[in-house]
Amino acid sequence: MPADMTNVALAITCDNYTCADMCAKAIAEGVAEAGYEKAKVIELVGDLKDQNATERFLDAAAQKYGLEIVAEVATEWDADRCFRRLTDTLQTVDDFNAIYCPSDFLLPTIMSCLQNAGRWTPMGEEGHVIIASIDGDPIAMEFITSGYVYMTANTDAFVFGREAMEGAIEIAKGNLPAEVNQPAAVGDLRKADIEAAGDTIWGNV
Fold this sequence. Notes:
Blueprint: E1 11-13, H1 16-34, E2 40-45, H2 51-55, H3 59-64, E3 68-74, H4 79-92, E4 98-101, H5 107-117, E5 130-135, H6 138-145, E6 151-154, H7 157-172, E7 181-183, E8 187-189, H8 191-197
Parallel strand pairs: 1-7, 2-3, 2-4, 4-5, 5-6
Antiparallel strand pairs: 6-8
């Protein structure tokens, strides 16, 4: 359910559609780099009562980049539910080569499930699963730089803070934004990007 914005002059929001598109594109690229014939994706889904979750569905992005969704796992933004349901899925679905994770906090759960299934291997090794996620938090930085996760769509807290302050200054001058919701810029972070960025991105701090 969308938030009540009646008395809000400015909201720096997450551009969820762009995040999902970036992840779909990255999965397609990662699958090609790994030498897989086609992207076969297990899609994790958040809580459907949450606007962020519904906007992060792959849907059109999957069609755009030629991804085949072989299973959907309803996590309800709960790590324990995700573990149980992804574990069950991995027992019945073995023809997959990618996982889409709509929030980085679920990455440790994915790791546990793939370890139990014998599929937690780094890039370049047989059976590696291409994983793309959203948020850009420290968990993602660790998994990406260690070679287990391919990318994260970075919804950088530094960017949110800077754009909110710049907007507040303009409002104080009497310059109201044309639209209350102002999506923050999103970055596609992969291993080389993270190593080069240092502490300029919030996930490395």
